[in-house]
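Issue 218. Parser rejects a valid record. Input:
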Amino acid sequence: MVSYASQEQLEIDVRDELLEPDGQVGGEQQIVDYTTFFFPAHGVFARRLICGPTLKSYSRAVVSLCEVDGNNVPFRGLATMSVANIVPHDDGILEIVGALQWNSDIKVRASVLWQ
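Output the parser choked on:
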């Protein structure tokens, strides 16, 4: 298991409150753009992904990870994967930090969507 904080640093923040949406209220929100990246990884990793000029620092980005075979076809392998941080920048670069619980590199597909 990957842990980013010691047991003493962990606090459970359970709030029973109703939150209003921040930003646009009503109307339809659409995906601005999407793209896919392939790279080898294992353990905790960081990548800078070139998404292009439609990605800005205020963009809301979503990243999903999956293992792929030699033909880039996704499959459910034994490695567990997670995305820990996603940071969009005005220059179209998306920084991600993830964790892949495997001892050697495996090929990963990162699917990115943003609005």
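Fixed in the parser; the record now loads. The longest strand covers residues 33-41.
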